[in-house]
Amino acid sequence: MTLNQQRKLKTFITGLFAWTIALVLFFPIFWMFVTSFKTELQAISIPPTLIFEPTLDNYSEVQERSDYIHHAFNSIVTAFGSTILALIIAVPAAFSMAFAPGKRTKDVLLWMLSTKMLPAVGVLVPIYILCRDYGLLDSKTALVIIFTLMNLPIVVWMLFSYFKDLPKEILEAARMDGATPWDEVVKVVLPLSMGAISSTALLSIVLCWNESFWSLTLTASDAAPLTAMIASYSSPEGLFWAKLSAASTLACAPIVVFGWFCQKQLVQGLTFGAVK
Amino acid sequence: MKRLTKNTLACAVSVAASMTAFSAFAATEITVATVNNGHMIEMQKLTPAFEKANPDIKVKWVTLEESVLRQNVTQDIANKSGLYDVMTIGMYEAPIWGQRGWLQAVDTSGNYDAQDILPSIRDGLSYDGTMYAAPFYGESSMVMYRKDLVKAAGMEVNDRDSWEHIRDVAAAVNDPSKGIYGICLRGKAGWGDNMALMTTMANSFGARWFDENWKPQLESAEWSNAVNFYVDLLTKYGPPGSSSNSFNESLALFNEGKCGMWIDATIAASFVTDPKQSKVADQVGFAQSPISVTEKGANWLWAWSLGIPAATKNAEAAQKFVRWATSKEYIQLVGNTNGWAAVPTGTRTSTYANPKFQEAAVFADAELKAINSANPNDSTLKPSPYVGVQFAAIPEFQAIGTTTGQMISGSLAGSMTVEQALKSANTSADRQMRRAGYY
């Protein structure tokens, strides 16, 4: 086998492996999409029905029963609101830790990450009581605050990882030109980090969009996001897979479209630091 | 200056008048937390009729998955958050929460006709003679079987057959090579899943959860006989993976034509006889639950009901809604709108007396018989201190029932013997009861 053939074979095997993983990951989403066009009886049939007459009944049922726009609006406000808030806090925090690290910076970073190791249910009662006492139950404000705190460690870590790889000489040059710390952040670091910030923001939005524990616990009707809408289609007595699939497809659609448009930033952001 | 004062006064008066007028027409909003099932969704769709009759009340709905609903309403009511004005609760919660003062008594005055509610359901939702939740739909358990398969096997299924006979029918019908299993039963762990069926079986085998001194009785010979019979029956004639099946999984199997018999909630009758959902809709027969040494507690009793938390700020509007949703008039409205086979059953005597309902629901007689035969105040052969057929209405039962369910599900899956399962469950129950101060 020549070197060229070996290279081609390697490329083929790598491609095959990547496609297999991609298909395995994509299959549940594809199946959910297909099931949403089946009747309930077709949805549960064993072996699964592959050829069937598609129906839009499940989508019209979801439209009739749930206020999709209301839930989608709540998801958008809470996901984007908490991401913006998290970035406002995280950018200066990551900047100071990357460019002016103290003795305990590493400890602080590790401590921040360790909060992610605590199961959410461990703080359920105190947070619920705080929300009740401050009148924040079933409000978007509560979700924005919780989501911000929930994602802050990841956002800070991602930005810190990128900032610390920026050449310090650039900041020194800016300082020589009379730039204040504010100018350094706004006029130097941020323009250089737009890719990292975009991908961090996108990841935070996706995590908020998919969050269900706090959404289900702290909201009722006014602030319930799309995850709460999906949960309402699970039934203890009766078939529900087709309707649940339709509700899930509708809930996933906006974030999938958003992710599709932002995939360039996402890939760029996720691979930052990988190649120098 | 005088003119300015006059104008200011006029403005202030008109603003005040508009605000008064606005508040006079501002609707009271009530939030109803409910579980997702057919009857509840229908109620949601028919709510405009209530709002039309009560223009000062607006209803907001929160539909949740059953376990999430339980968690959220318990949290809400225990913390007096006032997030929900009406909540869907079961027969287990109503008397316990009523006793603790967490629920308002249901207003049964005037033309509500509480005497029309089936006595066993009314008793199950009451504490000390006061009804703390109004039943929206009620259910018991019964046998649903494939008439064609049973006939072809030369067997019969009748009311109150013995469990041994049911096993023989299951054996005769069982044909895994054709994808048909003799019997489908709940196996998934949970106090409301496998333990609902298991407790009714154990009751009919003469078992009880606790003795008169609240000592757990899971190591008794009666429990052992019942659980051994159940595990043996499902292992030999049940579908593979029974230990993870509950209502919906069994419903899917039955509707696909893969079960010869299915013993479960009477509400299933409306699903398995619906040709849109079931491939065997025209072949389903019904019979009362099987028994062993006693009929007592052989079929369960449950009602999804509407309760009003004590902390609600909209008690009057909530009472109006609960009275409407659980009234005879509401059942009439559903019958006229969606057909009589779709009305919520298991609550009122008048529903079963209605000729239109009798004609539309082939399962009506079997369902009424099952519900009427269940007595939550006398469900065990030996005396017991608790209320409830398939549960004991004490706060500790959820944990005890679920732990026992996990053990029994484990023995069904083959990870431990029945004796080991019951011993572990009894030890755990004993610890919980001791800690709770029962003895």
Automatic annotation (TrEMBL), chain A:
The chain crosses the membrane at residues 12-34, 76-96, 108-130, 142-163, 184-207, 240-261. Pfam families: BPD_transp_1. It is found in: Cell membrane. Its main location: membrane. Residues 72-262 form the ABC transmembrane type-1 domain. Keywords: Cell membrane, Membrane, Transmembrane, Transmembrane helix, Transport. InterPro entries: BP-dep_ABC_trans_perm, MetI-like, MetI-like_sf. It is a multi-pass membrane protein. PANTHER family: INNER MEMBRANE ABC TRANSPORTER PERMEASE PROTEIN YCJP, MALTOSE TRANSPORT SYSTEM PERMEASE-RELATED. Belongs to the binding-protein-dependent transport system permease family. MalFG subfamily. This is Carbohydrate ABC transporter permease.
UniProtKB/TrEMBL annotation, chain B:
It is found in: Periplasm. The keyword NAD does not apply. InterPro entries: Bact_solute-bd_prot1 (IPR050490), SBP (IPR006059). This is Sugar ABC transporter substrate-binding protein. It comes from Marinomonas vulgaris. It holds the Pfam family SBP_bac_1. Residues 1-26 form the signal peptide. Keywords: Signal. Belongs to the bacterial solute-binding protein 1 family.
